[in-house]
Design brief:
Blueprint: H1 6-9, H2 22-34, E1 40-44, H3 51-63, H4 77-84, E2 90-94, H5 101-110, E3 121-126, H6 133-144, E4 150-156, H7 164-167, E5 171-174, H8 180-194, E6 197-198, H9 200-210, H10 214-228, E7 231-232, H11 234-241, H12 246-258, H13 261-273, H14 278-297, H15 312-319, H16 324-341, H17 347-363, H18 367-377, H19 383-386, H20 402-420, H21 425-428, E8 431-436, E9 440-445, H22 453-456, H23 459-473, E10 478-483, H24 506-509, H25 512-521
Parallel strand pairs: 1-4, 1-5, 2-3, 3-4, 6-7, 9-10
Antiparallel strand pairs: 8-9
Length: 530
């Protein structure tokens, strides 16, 4: 017997062997045990994740002559024939090469005949999205009401190309990309059984390069054994598949985060001289900065996010040196570079420019950081509002100064309140505190917008405003909104403005900034508010 590649030799033969798809195999287990079997199943997912393999195992389980619970025995004639591809009851069809209406009509005509050996006649159609519209329509009626002895199993990488009339007649299973940890564990199992000595870094490099496809990882391992024999190191993986080492990747990321442009350029030169794929470098960096974001915000169960345990400590160190706003800007720049690199004449130049921009993005303050600094320079009144903390918006003073403190901090308080009450923002912006006692705060509403009082006088709004003001004043208070009479809530008249008379505009016309605006827009002063 000739050599059998690892991907075929280690192809799962029972549900328990399927890697990383427990949500699918458990459902099929239950369906078999309870005999709640659909007449059509659709397996969807990226390449190499087990779509056709799962369909074959299900076919074996349904026609097995000595089934062990919900698992096929693998030893009966039916199981062996399905594995060998010689079963008359399980027919596998390649949708790419048998996509015409004539082939589907033949299938439709043959489904009426009973199974030869097992209870079911099963059709497995791979890459079903390649069927023509006419072929889909030809099979539609048969798929909706097949004979009781017929089952259809479809597999596809592009479910959006399958007609919705077909999708609605199938039970759909979405197979996900297999995690790096699961691929690494399976490769370790294969290497141990095959007598292959391989380093942990080499296994991680293969798993990273497989991009969630176990078959790709097994094929890569097979190729490496042919190249290097049964002793494999990380350098062998990197040289064969054009990947960069974990050390290079982490060093490049560190250079970006610290703004070390000379180190970045040197790293790119080294990577280019060793013949690595520049676009692959961008994708690796994207994955690394994504992991930094996850580590920054997810404190527990990092394994759920497919982050190798060996990298967590370093990721935490790098995450502590930056902010999520800067990381997001870096990721945006790398995504842009990835899209442009496909058509670039000099990928190295484009990569160098993109990484220099990323290093600047990593060391330049974000808008939120600038806002916090500006607020701090003004006395700290706005810092808490920017951070969404409803406490201490101003320096604590005597109780008699509470009203003035509230008025001073009111713009920051409104900014905070609007984040928790976005629908009330348009009404809050025209309010201002008018009186404060030890236990109560009255908030005035501009009479021009008094119709908004109803939107503010509801339990949720009152409660949120009350908690915010209690955090500011450091004591329990009640709150009410009241329309003001005669003037806007936040627009006291100038000291020299006569009450009851017309507005004195002279002092405002003398202001150069006001005069410039009026001249630019050919306008006039209608009202004055602070």
């Amino acid at each position: 017997m000739g050599y059998e590649v690892l991907a075929r030799k280690w192809r799962p033969q029972v549900f328990a062997d399927v890697v990383g798809q427990d949500h699918v195999t458990q459902t099929l287990h239950n369906a078999i045990q309870t005999e709640r079997l659909a007449h059509a199943y659709l397996f969807v997912g990226p390449r190499g994740t087990g779509k056709t393999t799962t369909a074959r195992i299900l076919a074996k389980a349904l026609n097995c002559q000595d089934r062990q619970g919900s698992e096929p025995c693998g030893q009966c004639n039916s199981c062996k024939e399905i594995v060998n591809g010689s079963s008359l009851d399980v027919i596998e069809i390649d949708g790419a090469s048998n996509n015409g209406v004539d082939q589907v009509r033949d299938l439709r005509d043959n489904v009426r005949y009973a199974a030869v050996r097992g209870p079911f006649k099963i059709y497995i159609i791979d890459e079903v999205h390649m069927l023509s519209t006419a072929a889909f329509n030809a099979i539609l009626k048969t798929l909706e009401e097949p004979p009781p002895h017929v089952k259809f199993f479809f597999a596809t990488t592009e479910p959006q190309k399958v007609l919705t009339t077909i999708l609605s007649r199938c039970q759909r299973f979405d197979l996900r990309r297999i995690s790096v940890a699961d691929i690494t564990a399976q490769l370790q199992k294969i290497c141990k059984a095959e007598g292959i000595t391989i380093s942990d870094d080499a296994l991680l490099a293969i798993s990273r390069g497989a991009e969630g496809g176990l078959r790709d990882a097994e094929s890569a391992l097979d190729q490496l054994v042919s190249f290097r024999g049964k002793t494999i190191e990380e350098a062998d993986v990197l040289s064969v598949f054009g990947l960069i080492s974990r050390e290079q990747l982490e060093g490049l990321a560190c250079g970006i985060l610290t703004g070390d442009i000379p180190a970045i350029l040197q790293a790119v030169a080294t990577i280019d001289s060793s013949g690595k794929d520049m676009q692959r470098v961008v994708l690796e960096l994207l994955d690394h900065f994504r992991n930094l974001l996850i580590v920054m915000h997810a404190e527990k169960n990092l394994e759920v996010f497919d982050i190798p345990a060996t990298q967590i400590d370093l990721l935490k160190q790098q995450a502590g040196k930056t902010s999520d706003g800067r990381l997001l800007r870096i990721i945006d720049l790398l995504i842009d570079a990835d899209g442009r690199m496909r058509y670039a004449l000099s990928k190295r130049t484009l990569l160098e420019a993109a990484l220099i921009r990323a290093s600047r993005a990593a060391t330049v303050a974000t808008v939120d950081e600038l806002m916090q600094q500006v607020a701090a320079l003004k006395g700290g009144d706005g810092a808490a509002a920017v951070n969404e903390a409803p406490v201490d918006y101003a320096v604590k003073k005597k109780p008699s100064d509470d009203l003035e403190r509230l008025k001073t901090a009111w713009p920051q308080l409104i900014a905070h309140l609007s984040k928790g009450l976005p629908s009330a923002h348009q009404y809050l912006i025209d309010t201002a505190p008018v009186s404060v006692t030890d236990t109560h705060v009255s908030i005035g509403i501009d009479p021009e917008f008094a119709q908004g009082k109803g939107s503010l006088d509801n339990p949720r709004t009152i409660s949120f405003v009350q908690k915010t003001l209690e955090g500011f004043l450091k004591r329990a208070v009640s709150v009410n909104f009241q329309p003001l009479e005669g003037q806007a809530a936040d627009a006291p008249l100038p000291a020299d403005q006569p009450t009851g008379g017309s507005l004195d505009k002279t002092q405002y016309y003398d202001n150069p900034a006001v005069r410039s605006v009026l001249e630019t827009f050919n306008g006039d002063i209608e009202d004055v508010r602070k």
